[in-house]
Amino acid sequence: MQGETGLSVVIARIASIIYLAAAAGALFSRSHYRRLLEDFYRNAAVVYLAGFMALVLGSLVVSSHNLWVKDWRVLITILGWLALIKGVLLIAFPGFVQGYSRPFLGERGLMWLPLAAVPLGLLFGYFGFLY
Fold first, then answer.
1. In terms of Cα–Cα distance, which of 53, 51, 52, 61 is closest to 81?
2. Residue 12: count of CB within 10 angstroms of its CB
3. First vs last Cα of the chain: how many Å apart?
4. Which of 3, 2, 6, 26 shows the shortest CA–CA distance to 120?
5. DSSP code, position 103
6. Fewest CB within 10 angstroms: 9, 31, 106, 117, which?
């Protein structure tokens, strides 16, 4: 149990920093993020590499932290499964993901990114650094 909780804390810390950094970037560098998302799908190698990285990270989390428990640690498991699924979709169906991502390329889409990422970053930060 202690080992699982320790791993949960490490993953929560990493997720917190990633979510809060992405939120800050979307808030303070909106035009950069718009270009980043637009350029992302123009380069098939980058899409494949991103899918490969998501698949590897998701697989690592799922294989080492597949805890379906009734506490905060289940959020780590869900995060791992979402990363794994995202990786599979980016590798196998990049056009589908691009079409699904299109609404996030506009001004409204980039406005929602920090609204979702900040609470997630704070939640994972609480469990990773304070809990």
1. 61
2. 23
3. 16
4. 26
5. G
6. 31
